[in-house]
Amino acid sequence: MLDWRVLAASFVALIVIVIAISGNIRIPEGLSGIIDPLNVIGRLPGGGSGGEEIAITFWPEGNHSLKSKEAVTVYSGGAVIYGFNGEITLDAPGAAELRQATVLLKEDGSPLHAAFATNTVIDGLMLGKTGLAGKISMASGNWNYTSENGSVTFSSFSGQALISPSSGIITLNGNVTGLDKK
Questions:
Q1: Which of 58, 59, 155, 163 meets the CB 3.0–4.6 Å disulfide criterion with 135?
Q2: Environment class of residue 20 by beta-carbon count within 10 Å: exposed (0-12), middle (13-18) or buried (19+)?
């Protein structure tokens, strides 16, 4: 018959392994040296972190819109919008237009519209298959890629976006899967 101490020790070991694999629960500092080497899921391609960590900067020609799969938090100037679920557009005027570029927000199913002329940060951005073209710069780990007229497609993205209307730049910082550059 099983001793209750063996059963209890097995149960505790099972809990520690589940915590180590999930990575969602804070582990006390004293145990992190023991548990961190067990976290193999985060080291597998496409595992744990949701893909390859990358920074993508691109200069879209004209307007460019982003639509997250999930609600996001938007920061611009002193304003914060929590739970925004709609289209985010870098509205870049053409050369003949005499107006400043802005970041436009249009909430789905709502009359809410907002325009910001300052740098705007979007936290919690989740994009499905996305293609970008034009001037692109990417960096990840020990490689980088820059093209004046290139294109990149990725299957999914999760992370943060910084939109700078004054320079017409959009920077995505986060994790991607299925990256294809040309």
A1: 59
A2: buried
E-only strand ranges, the chain: 52-59, 64-67, 72-76, 79-84, 86-91, 102-107, 113-116, 120-127, 130-140, 143-154, 156-164, 169-177, 180-181
DSSP state, 42?
A: G
Whether pTM > 0.85 for this model: the answer is no
pLDDT in tens, 57-92: 988 877 888 899 999 999 998 889 999 999 998 887
Q: Mean per-residue pLDDT for 17-31?
A: 51
**What six digits make up the tokens of 59?**
């200069």
CB neighbours of 80 closer than 8 A, spacing ≥ 6? Answer: 73, 74
* Nearest Cα residue to 102 out of 158, 57, 168: 168
Evaluated on CA atoms 152, 156, 160, 161, the torsion sign reads: positive
Confidence check: pLDDT of 96 > 60: no
Residue position matching structure tokens 């870098």: 90
Rounded CA-CA distance 22/81 in Å is 30
pLDDT of residue 112: 78
